[in-house]
Amino acid sequence: MRTCSGGPSKTCARLPPEASLTVVGSVNLDLVARSERLPRVGETLTDAAFARFPGGKGANQAVAAARLGAKVRFVGAVGDDVFAGEALAGLREAGVELALSRHGETGVALIVVDAVGENVIVVAPGANAQIGAVDVSGNVLCQLEISDETVTSAAKGAERFFLNAAPARAIPGDVVRKAELVVVNRYELDSLPETPRLLALTLGEEGAVLIEAGQEVARAAAPRVQAVDGTAAGDAFTACLVVSLLEDRDREEALLRACAAGAIAVSREGAQPSLPTADEVDAMLGS
Fold it and tell me: Are 173 and 192 in contact (CB under 8 A)?
């Protein structure tokens, strides 16, 4: 697709094709306490400020992909409780198509964030653990806040399968083999049962690298920002990298855009409220 401007000597720029993506994953309500520092074991801190945000790695990545211009369908589960509507608010606001089942209680994440944006997170998965097998096709993205049964069925149904192997845990080797791309940080890398075809390794402030068949094929630096909250930085990175590849961008550009998306998310408070649009990524990169 091309867009043109100007008179007789008008110039045309190629626009990327619209990405279409099904995200299978978790949806949580994030309960966030912001404190000057993280507590030590057995210690109580009383200086915190409290906020609630829609979250969950799957929902975060679905919202991020939609804000980046993709057509997104989200497959997941919530409970029959008062948290469900609040947890789904960000997905609905972003225009994501929802395919939900309902089981018990909505997932909850307890998050403590310090003054420099570092965090500790404990998740009570609730309904996310009870999704079961799913019937999906096309381009599919999964994370690991859902069961092996759900991830395996999503991988089998997908034409193009992408995996954010987070949080770190053991997963079946056939899931990794099916994945066109696996995204991990340093800790999650050690939990993989085998080497993926294409690996995106995030390095925090150092950016990220793409590794194919054991060889580095692309590297990007992370833009410098004032860190506020790192909760959804990995979700912003993953969604932007996948959407960029679906838009047929080359790997170096895709990785650069993903690092910019992650940096923007770090500079803002909350999970889904921090996720950038495509225009904001363009602005960060000066394009």
Answer: no
Q: Closest Cα partner for 95 from 137, 54, 64, 125? A: 64
Q: Where does residue 127 rank: exposed (0-12), middle (13-18), buried (19+ CB within 10 A)? A: buried
Name the H helices within 68-222: 83-93, 148-157, 173-178, 186-189
> In terms of Cα–Cα distance, which of 86, 87, 3, 25 is closest to 242?
25
Instruction: Reply yes or no on whether the pLDDT at 239 is more than 90.
Output: yes
Q: Which residue in this structure is represented by tokens 């998050």?
A: 111
Q: What's the CA gap between 142 and 25, in Å, rounded?
A: 6
- The Cβ-side half-sphere exposure at 195, using a 13 Å CA radius, reads 7
Local confidence band at 133 (pLDDT 50, 70, 90 cut-offs): very high
Confidence band, pLDDT 50/70/90 cuts, at residue 1: very low
Does position 13 have pLDDT exceeding 90, yes or no? no
Among 80, 190, 235, 279, the one annotated catalytic: 235
SS3 29: strand
Closest by CA to 60, choosing from 275, 240, 277, 281, is 275
The pTM of the full predicted model, rounded to 2 decimals, is: 0.90
Q: Under a CB-based contact definition with an 8 Å cutoff, are residues 28 and 109 in contact?
A: yes
Dihedral angle of Cα 83, 88, 90, 93, to the nearest 10 degrees: -130
Cis peptide before 167 (omega within 30 of 0): yes
pLDDT band, residue 270 (cuts 50/70/90): confident
235 is catalytic: yes
What are the pLDDT digits (tens) for 220-234? 999 999 988 888 899
Please write down the long-range contacts of 184-193, taking CB distance under 8 Å and 24 or more positions apart: 185/234, 191/165, 192/165
